[in-house]
Amino acid sequence: MKRTLQKHIAEALQILGQLGLPRAQQNERSALCLLALINLTPRKKWSSAQSPLMGITPIMDWAREHYQKEYAPNTRETVRRQTMHQFVDAGMALYNPDHPARAVNSPKAVYQIEPATLELLRSFGKETWHGNLNHYLSQRETLASKYAKERNQNRIPLRVAPFKQIALSPGEHSQLIRAVIEEFGPRFAPDATLIYAGDTGEKWGYFDQDRLANLGVRIDAHGKMPDVVLYCERRNWLLLVESVTSHGPVDSKRHQELAQLFKGAGCGLVYVTAFPNRAVMSRYLIEIAWETEVWVAEAPSHLIHFNGERFLGPYGEG
């Protein structure tokens, strides 16, 4: 039985090598992902490959059920970032073909083997394989560029500087990040400079790393960055804005994490939680840390202070 299980894994590894995948993706994990994408269980022939829609967790469950490979739940990100991202970039797999505008961090996200790749894989082991493979490889760059262009059509454009524009992944999270930069920033920190804008699809959507380093903060790729960082030079403040659609609000734990991450900053730190609307905010009120700010995108001209007596006092009538 073990030999039967290993046969398709070994063949999938051979295919990944012939398709030119990087060494980092020529491993058992990627081989099992490829087999899952075509639903090739141990006793099936390559000619019977299929094209189901599969999410990351279903892929991992499939590997356990059919190839006795157990993956811990915390390896989901490894499967997604170290195998499926590369499959999509290579044009071998499609991301959310049923709903291209689906948010990157949606639990409903799915992958599907790309049609031309499926046809190629069905010929593996036949006399036509090498001819089909050569033809397929000659078309790859064109197809990969085509799918990349289609993905970018669903991204959210955002101008972050006079001559700089980025594209955020689609979804509620990116919409809120855009609102923070375009609505919150000009109102409450009009002279601020954008230092960082995160993106659920690309960890560093925009990052002026040199500017942050000049302020005394150096961040590596493992730092738990807030969603938006703005620097207000006139007041010498760093505004650390967390979108509730990613980590949740700035609660006591998150406040401590951010304080530790930015402890080298030679400026004041302002902690802000951004909500899309007050209905969402109401679900998190009990968690929001004191000495932080709350901004709600549906009422962009207002700010809610969780700062105690510092802001106690009457408002004028005019």
Structure notes:
The strands form three sheets. A seven-stranded mixed beta sheet has the order 6-5-7-8-9-10-11, sandwiched between helices. A two-stranded antiparallel sheet has the order 1-2. It is elongated and about 75 Å long. The protein contains ten helices and eleven strands. With 318 residues, the protein is an alpha+beta fold. The longest helix has 24 residues, at 129-152.
Summarize this structure as a short list of keywords or feature phrases.
2 domains; elongated; 11 strands; 318 residues; Arc Repressor Mutant, subunit A; Trna Endonuclease, Chain: A, domain 1; 7-stranded mixed beta sheet; alpha+beta
Q: What is the element layout, followed by pairings?
A:
Layout: H1 2-18, H2 28-37, H3 56-67, H4 76-89, E1 93-95, E2 111-113, H5 115-121, H6 129-152, E3 156-161, E4 164-168, H7 172-188, E5 193-197, E6 206-207, H8 209-214, E7 228-232, E8 237-243, H9 252-261, E9 268-275, H10 278-282, E10 292-296, E11 303-306
Helix pairs in contact: 1-2, 2-3, 5-6
Succession of helices and strands? HHHHEEHHEEHEEHEEHEHEE
The parts where pLDDT drops under 50 for at least 5 residues are 154-158
What is the correct CATH architecture of the largest domain? 3-Layer(aba) Sandwich
Question: What strand order characterises the main sheet?
Answer: 6-5-7-8-9-10-11
Oligomer state equals single chain
The structure class reads alpha+beta
Give the termini distance in whole angstroms: 82 Å
Total beta strand runs: 11
Q: How large a portion of the residues is in β-strands, by DSSP E?
A: 15-25%
Gyration radius from CA atoms, angstroms: 24 Å
Number of helices: 10
The pLDDT mean sits at 83
General form: elongated
CATH topology category name of the largest domain = Trna Endonuclease, Chain: A, domain 1
Q: What percent of residues adopt helix (DSSP H or I)? A: 25-40%
Name of the CATH superfamily of the largest domain: BsuBI/PstI restriction endonuclease, C-terminal domain
How many domains make up the 3D coordinates? 2
Tell me the major beta sheet: 7 strands, mixed
